[in-house]
Design a protein that fits this description.
The protein is α/β, with parallel strands linked by helices. It is built from eleven helices and 27 strands. It folds into three domains: 211 residues, 3-Layer(bba) Sandwich (FAD/NAD(P)-binding domain), CATH 3.50.50; 153 residues, D-Amino Acid Oxidase, Chain A, domain 2; 91 residues, Glutaredoxin (3-Layer(aba) Sandwich), CATH 3.40.30.120.
């Protein structure tokens, strides 16, 4: 095993695998370990939203996922008898105007296979037992299920090791939040009677929510709440007959489930750390935040943690950017975690209302509100994660006379020039200005011409993860240079 490993990643789920792929893409040496004997064989998280697909597109390997998934173009909320709202993803401003429904087992397979092609194999049956941040490096103790141990020294440690994260425990971070006092059922199986099949179907029944998520043709995920739990005991996993009873009672009629791949009972946890890093150790994904599955945002939020951290680590490790760049990771992603936690919690609260009067009011208000196209479009952008941004980040700077249409901190909607082997900002604006910036900061900036989304009066620096870092007028080259000088090593 190579001894000059820069980064140790604990946890080889979708988040750890995404981080490993991104770091390897940038030429950073990694080891990735997982205590599980094999990747998951369950559907678990089963959607890649538009924003995540855009990030994989820019990274150069989105095509590994597309054949393994099924596009879903929106959602239908109904009572089973009356449609309350329709949400369409078709009109969102993305090259991927849909949700890609793909079982987590396939997501992990695609990522692990790509990693293997780059010479990195997931080390399974290996757990992170402990670590010490020594200031200049991190010393970690790894233990195999056979009992063998290994002491490994790396420059950085990333905990992508889930809700029971050893890295989080080692850092002493509290996982603040609650476990909701209600039981839920989950089933993954073949269902007939649902149409159209390229939509999420959500039934707000008087006895509780019944939600269907397409996985592949004829195969669906079913989630239903059972109401307040009588005690703290773990609810038994459902039988196929119990799921069928819920479909018959709460659905639109004629729904039949068979050939179940997975049946489970669960409770919703909503927890988050207050900071995502300390010293040379970082947290990403469920190690830092867990929340309601409403909206299917969890895995995507974790993957976007990984994209955010990877480009910053690569620039610092490569000596291109100052180590202080890494301070922005916790600031940015903690704010996003708060936003996702809040949105998912509110969606769950609305869905599980049980008071008949409150249900009637909810249905009437939602139906009225979704009569306005603007609200439907805003809901689609939230689901697709296109409205995520970094308005309060230390990396977000408004230059002189910046355009109101192009705000610093927002997602850049166009495809960026492919730059798959190194992390660089993209300078967009007048040709002479962007060429000058690229010449002065060749390891940090690539030049791009003005696009139809931007008039010649603006000068932008778009981050490697596709968010506008600096936004100024075309003449504010001094402002752009000051922004880059603050990041670049001497």
């Amino acid at each position: 095993m190579a001894q000059n490993i820069k980064v140790l990643i604990a946890g080889a789920g979708p988040v750890g695998l995404t981080l490993a792929n991104e770091l390897v893409r940038y030429g950073i040496s990694v080891r990735i370990v997982d205590k599980a004997a094999a990747r998951t064989d369950k559907s678990k998280a089963l959607v890649l939203w538009s924003r995540t697909l855009e990030l994989f597109d820019h990274a150069g390997y989105v095509n590994g996922f597309l054949p393994a998934g099924m596009p879903a173009h929106g959602a239908i909320i109904s009572t089973g008898k009356e449609v309350i709202a329709r949400i369409s993803l078709d009109g969102i401003d993305s090259v991927y105007p849909y949700a890609l429904m793909i079982p987590q087992s396939d997501t992990e397979r695609v990522l692990e296979e790509r990693l293997a092609k780059h010479g990195v194999t997931v080390e399974r049956n290996v757990a992170l037992e402990s670590f010490v941040d020594q200031g200049a490096q991190v010393q970690s103790v790894l233990r195999k299920t056979t009992g063998e141990s290994e002491t490994l020294t790396t420059d950085w440690l990333i905990g992508c090791d889930g809700a029971h994260s050893a890295v989080r425990h080692g850092l002493g971070f509290t996982f603040d939040g609650t476990t909701q006092p209600s039981d839920w059922y989950l089933a993954d199986g073949h269902i007939t009677g649902l149409d159209p099949q390229d939509r999420l179907h959500i039934f707000w029944h008087k006895e509780g929510i019944l939600a269907f998520f397409p996985i592949s043709e004829g195969r669906w995920r079913v989630v239903a709440d059972l109401g307040p739990a009588p005690d703290n005991a773990h609810h038994a996993d459902p039988t196929l007959e119990e799921i069928q009873s819920l479909l018959t009672k709460r659905g639109s009629g004629g729904l039949v489930i068979k050939d179940a791949y997975w049946l489970a009972a669960f409770r919703i946890n909503e927890r988050k750390v207050s900071q995502y890093s300390r010293g040379r150790a970082f947290l990403a994904g469920d190690a830092a935040h867990i929340h309601s599955p409403a909206g299917g945002q969890g895995m995507n939020t974790g993957m976007q943690d990984a994209f955010n951290l990877a480009w910053k680590l690569s620039l610092v490790i490569g000596g291109v950017a100052k180590p202080s760049l890494l301070d922005s990771y916790s600031v940015e992603r903690s704010a996003v975690g708060d936003q996702v936690l809040s949105n998912a919690g509110h969606m769950t609260e609305v869905a599980i209302v049980r008071n008949p009067i409150a249900q009637g009011l909810r249905n009437a208000v939602v139906k009225f509100a979704f009569g306005f196209p603007q609200l439907g479009h805003a809901a689609a952008n939230t689901l697709a994660e296109l409205d995520i941004g970094y308005p309060d980040s230390p990396l977000t700077v408004k230059g002189a006379h910046h355009s109101k249409e192009t705000k610093a901190g927002k997602r850049w909607p166009d495809r960026l020039p492919p730059d798959t082997s190194q992390a660089r900002f993209t300078a967009i604006g007048p040709a002479d200005a962007v060429a000058g910036l690229a010449a002065k900061f060749p390891r940090l900036v690539q030049a791009a011409p003005t696009t139809d989304k931007l008039d010649s009066q603006n000068l932008l620096l778009v981050r490697p993860d596709g968010y506008v870092g600096f936004a100024g007028s075309a003449s504010d080259r001094a402002g752009a240079e000051a922004y880059l000088l603050a990041l670049a090593t001497p």
